[in-house]
């Protein structure tokens, strides 16, 4: 058996608490460490029990905020609900990043791993890293971002050791204000050697649990740590169990355990807990072995013993990262299968070490990772309790949902939001394009490669758009993976429109948002489906693009033929606005009909918010694109010219049961531009009426 | 020229004011009078100008409360809107009835004439008839009923002569409280000979206009009377015009004129009004001559002269009612065409004398009567300002909308109403089944003929339902035109389901409400369409019926096969309730998608209100049917047995794009009843599981 003494703990491994829940090892550090261990293999042949899992998962996951009035908002209720339905879940633990760019990466990872459907994630508390601050690397901000911008149910760790009650209350108040609803209450490691129990202070996690319940009543769901082999500092295993009972009795809602290497260890622990009257959920902490050194570090920190059978396998392959990772996956899958089959384990908690591959692979093999998770709404629902009834958003921010959340964070009136309700607050300004959760994942260098080191004309801008749409490399041979308005490659749904999008972008109809018309596809449709099973989803075709004022002049003539089928809003950066739609009334462009429910209309074209979106959409030309180039450089001037002179256009085809006519509208516009109508015959005064006409129709003149 | 002196005014012609607006002649009286007059024919060959009328009418008429945010709520705004769009309107004047049964009839007439699409109706003030009281024959109650229960924009007349300010203010406050928004301000006839102008009293309509504006600011729209040939008591035509100018300057919004017989009379009057600066709308009062005697009476009261050319036609046919009516229609149509073509007349006001035929015929010939008026919503919208945002109702009251309005009259929270909002008030009790606006139009005798003088079994009740559904005479040879739950013959929409309804009612599935599934029919569909043009309407199939507990037991077994496609609620009079739906969440069963709009879902199956409806639906068995028979009589006992033992069932087929499966559900139920499953094979203990099963499934056991 291998045990690492805490005294050996290297001080540069930054944030660490007694339980592994809050034991954070920087990824880059872990990857560097290489050592030699002896291990032995433990293989478990039990099969996974997934019976009935899929269907019950759907029913619990796909309920939308407004649709499901018995939706279980509290994490403990969600757990009970899924436990009762036999619907196994998983959850993921992350630690805060060390750098700002690490924060950007972690948020992307939240999005990717969030798509697999975790019941919650948790973010460890990093006492040395100013954890309650507004810094982008703080525990508080990372957890807040996960909740608010990634829509993830989140638990914030909190350690109480060496903290005043005022400080702790301040942290909790801030967490509450930010929309956090769950706390993992931990003691934390005493700092320095001179720590002694304080009479009225926080000596144990129990004190923190009591404090939370005392100061915040039942607001927070509280999690505490369990030690399947006993806390390293505890006098005995039994003594430690009694402490755990105290924590639960003080008001904790569930337990997550320290990692362990044998299913039996956990199952015995659960039995022992139940025997002394602990009835709350006990979630096993799963640690897929991802590398020799990280295992060694973890064990050192947590004073755990690695079973001989594991050491025997690992030791011979300690220099083979891939082999160790594969073994770790296999070992974790085997152990998890035993746990799930035991009937004692409603959900699995994963120590991810902020990595994706191993955990996702284990979850996939267990059948718990939902490759294409059912969407409750066509957009990701924020997890802030204030937004729980939000069920409608303007379509404009479809590709910039975090920006929409940011700009509406001060609203307290969801779902109605801005439209038609003049008493609601307006959209917040978006001056902070570089907030880490709004920032592009790509570096300036990468952006220049994608969007052009040097632009020579408006046409070279068109080509960037075309490359993005077609996923073909640009002239410099780089794939365009994002645009200022689209941080990700084309959505599968938009891909349905690829050919048409390609064609029009080449000619300077620079599309930034679109959706096809849908006339009643099943809600389970893998591409356009959302909402509970057994329903039908609908869409009106939508197209949004920038284009030149010459194009707009032709477009407006063409659109007359499409009244009242097509609604349009056309605006330039100066706010000159032309529309044939009601100036206050939203147009529902996505809606769903479900068994036993009211109608849901989650996406609208809202004329009021379009004018706020316009500011953002035009600003992105400058903030994200023009500023890549030198001041006064031709490239920058080209982008600025587009910014100053182009119009932002949105079109809705109201006749959703018919074929989308918006491409025909654009074709007609090109046709009119290519073949302008003949002058009037000679016997009539020629130019005048035509000129008048085009003057009147050109917005902004 | 024929003039009737006011001194000849017969005192038994009850309620009468200076203007014909408030001159009311009881229909029965008018019909009795027969006299000899000389008339001459005046034929007008001008064609009606209806160009562009249809489309603009649609656009203004079809805006639903929630759909149209620039909807013009005030009558004066509606007038301006329609005047601007060149969309001619008509309006209808009625007087209060003399008897309670007259009130029931008048309300039915409101419904019938309201279906032609009047912009408003007005109800005359009957000073001798306790006009401001709560009696069913009072002007106040008739106007209130028109607004609240018939959904008609209404003007209440009010005369001020011989009234204290307190009394007038009291009337106005009451009118406001009842949802009336428009007042026709009149002086009224002085009562008795000793009337003199009072210093601070109401001497002229102008005083009343000023008083209304002073006490109620801009709340009411105010109409005043205009006299195309001058008021009979005025010193001169010009003097009378100046009085009219005073009334308008005091705050009147528009003018309705006394009747006249020549278009020129009116058009000159309008020119003269405009010349002295009267700019508000001036609506011509049209009086289609309906009989010799009624014309004579009217002229007598109003001191008008009937032109020789009319007298010359009428006099020879004075004993031929039909001929006079036909002439009256022809004369009115000709005159109205001239008026409408003049461009000076935005709308026509009709003195109906509480009759339907002549006015409807004139309107039909003018193209102003909309035979199948576009419905703004699938149900008639109440005209009470409090309910202007109401856009959803439970489907249960579809055939009893007045009862729904009555039971929700105290709500101040529309459109959400009861569902899901526990802070809303509950439904009011319905103990007053005999309120005149809720009362059946049929007499007890007529009901006994339709529903059976004597019932011999439940089967004879089934036959009444079947007769109603099929519109075939019952065994006694009488057509069943209504049922306690359906005051009118089958709706055209329900007629689509006739064959199926016939089949199931014969077997004791006693249907009281149903709708077919609709998967995106145009909103202009003549049978199922509603809402603005260019939209699509949808429905989930719905079926509601009473049936025996034996049937319900089989039905519940059958319904297992239809999970989750079919939602059901099954309840008996004691409130024993079985459902597979959410117990709080409504199921939208009618919705519409329109260009440039949000989704509208005007009809829902709401579980909470179903339990209120249940009380009413069961009570109707007793209140409207059982009580037709002697206490303890077999007929009464049969109805009471059904009331006590049957269940009320509603079914929704959620899969609206597929063929309605609800008939199959009922067929399966009959099949199960006809061919109960075999007993278990001999080697197993037979009855027990089956018995258990049926025990569990039979609600109420």
Automatic annotation (TrEMBL), chains A, B:
CDD domains: MTHFR. GO terms for molecular function: FAD binding; methylenetetrahydrofolate reductase (NADPH) activity. GO terms for cellular component: cytosol. Residues 374-674 form the MTHFR SAM-binding regulatory domain. Residues 68-77 have a biased composition (Basic and acidic residues). It is an enzyme of class 1 (oxidoreductase). Pathway: One-carbon metabolism; tetrahydrofolate interconversion. Keywords: Allosteric enzyme, FAD, Flavoprotein, NADP, Oxidoreductase, Phosphoprotein. Residues 40-77, 674-701 are annotated as: Disordered. Its EC number is 1.5.1.53. The keyword Phosphoprotein applies. It catalyses: (6S)-5-methyl-5,6,7,8-tetrahydrofolate + NADP(+) = (6R)-5,10-methylene-5,6,7,8-tetrahydrofolate + NADPH + H(+). SUPFAM superfamilies: FAD-linked oxidoreductase (SSF51730). Residues 40-54 have a biased composition (Low complexity). It comes from the Eukaryota. Its cofactor is FAD. One of its GO terms (biological process) is methionine biosynthetic process. Catalyzes the conversion of 5,10-methylenetetrahydrofolate to 5-methyltetrahydrofolate, a cosubstrate for homocysteine remethylation to methionine. Represents a key regulatory connection between the folate and methionine cycles. Homodimer. Belongs to the methylenetetrahydrofolate reductase family. This is Methylenetetrahydrofolate reductase (NADPH). It comes from Oncorhynchus mykiss. The gene is LOC110532243.
């Amino acid at each position: 058996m291998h045990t690492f003494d805490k005294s050996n703990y290297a001080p540069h491994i930054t944030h660490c608490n007694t339980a592994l829940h809050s034991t954070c090892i920087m990824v880059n550090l872990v990857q560097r460490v290489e050592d030699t261990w002896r291990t032995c293999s433990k293989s478990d042949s039990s099969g996974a029990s997934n019976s009935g899992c899929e269907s019950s998962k759907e029913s619990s996951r796909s309920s939308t905020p407004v649709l499901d009035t018995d939706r279980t908002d509290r994490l403990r209720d969600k757990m009970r609900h899924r436990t009762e339905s036999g619907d196994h879940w998983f959850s993921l633990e992350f630690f805060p990043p060390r750098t700002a760019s690490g924060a950007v990466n972690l948020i992307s990872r939240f999005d990717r791993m969030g798509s697999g459907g975790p019941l919650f994630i948790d973010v460890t508390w990093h006492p040395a890293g100013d954890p309650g601050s507004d810094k982008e690397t703080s525990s508080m901000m990372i957890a807040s971002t996960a909740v608010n911008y990634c829509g993830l149910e989140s638990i914030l760790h909190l350690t109480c050791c060496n903290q005043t009650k005022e400080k702790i209350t301040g942290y909790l108040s801030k967490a509450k204000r930010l929309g956090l609803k769950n706390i993992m209450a931990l003691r934390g490691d005493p700092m320095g050697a001179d720590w002694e129990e304080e009479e009225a202070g926080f000596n144990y996690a129990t004190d923190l649990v009591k404090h939370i319940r005392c100061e915040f009543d039942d607001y927070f769901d509280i999690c505490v740590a369990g030690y399947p082999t006993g806390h390293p500092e505890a006098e005995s295993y039994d003594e430690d169990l009694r402490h755990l009972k105290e924590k639960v009795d003080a008001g904790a809602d569930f337990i997550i355990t320290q990692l362990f290497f044998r299913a039996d260890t956990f199952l015995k622990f659960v039995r022992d807990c139940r025997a002394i009257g602990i009835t709350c959920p006990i979630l096993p902490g799963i640690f897929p072995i991802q590398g020799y050194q990280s295992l060694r570090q973890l064990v050192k920190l947590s004073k755990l013993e690695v079973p001989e059978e594991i050491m025997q396998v690992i030791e011979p392959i300690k220099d083979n990262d891939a082999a160790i990772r594969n073994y770790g996956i296999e070992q974790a899958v085997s152990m998890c299968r035993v746990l799930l089959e035991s009937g004692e384990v409603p959900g699995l908690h994963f120590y991810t070490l902020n990595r994706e591959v191993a955990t996702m692979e284990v979850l996939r093999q267990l059948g718990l990772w939902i490759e294409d998770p059912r969407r409750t709404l066509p957009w990701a629902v924020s997890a802030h309790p204030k937004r729980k009834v939000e069920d409608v958003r303007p379509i404009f921010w479809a590709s910039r949902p975090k920006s929409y959340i940011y700009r509406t964070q001060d609203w307290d009136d969801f779902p109605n939001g801005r439209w038609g309700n003049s008493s609601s607050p307006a959209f917040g300004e978006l001056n902070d394009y570089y907030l880490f959760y709004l920032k592009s994942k790509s570096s300036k260098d990468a952006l220049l490669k994608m969007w052009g080191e040097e632009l020579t004309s408006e046409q070279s801008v068109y080509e960037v758009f075309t490359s993005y749409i077609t996923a073909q490399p640009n002239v410099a041979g780089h794939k365009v993976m994002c645009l200022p308005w689209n941080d990700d490659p084309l959505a599968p749904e938009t891909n349905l429109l690829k050919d048409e999008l390609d064609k029009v972008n080449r000619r300077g109809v620079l599309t930034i948002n679109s959706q096809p018309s849908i006339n009643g596809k099943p809600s389970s449709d893998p591409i356009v489906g959302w909402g509970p099973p057994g329903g039908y989803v609908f869409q009106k075709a939508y197209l949004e693009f920038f284009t030149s004022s010459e194009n707009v002049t032709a477009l407006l003539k063409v659109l007359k033929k499409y009244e009242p089928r097509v609604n349009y809003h056309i605006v330039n950066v100066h706010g000159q606005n032309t529309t044939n739609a009601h100036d206050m009334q939203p147009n529902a462009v996505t809606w769903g009909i479900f068994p036993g429910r009211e109608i849901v209309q989650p996406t609208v074209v809202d004329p009021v918010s379009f004018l706020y979106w316009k500011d953002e959409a035009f600003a992105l030309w400058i903030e994200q694109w023009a500023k890549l180039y030198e001041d006064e450089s031709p490239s920058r001037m080209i982008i600025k010219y587009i910014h100053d002179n182009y119009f932002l256009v949105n079109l809705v085809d109201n006749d959703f049961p018919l074929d989308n006519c918006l491409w025909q509208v654009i074709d007609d516009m090109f046709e009119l531009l290519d073949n302008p109508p003949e002058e009037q015959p000679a016997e009539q005064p020629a130019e005048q009426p035509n000129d008048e006409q085009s003057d009147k129709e050109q917005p902004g003149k």
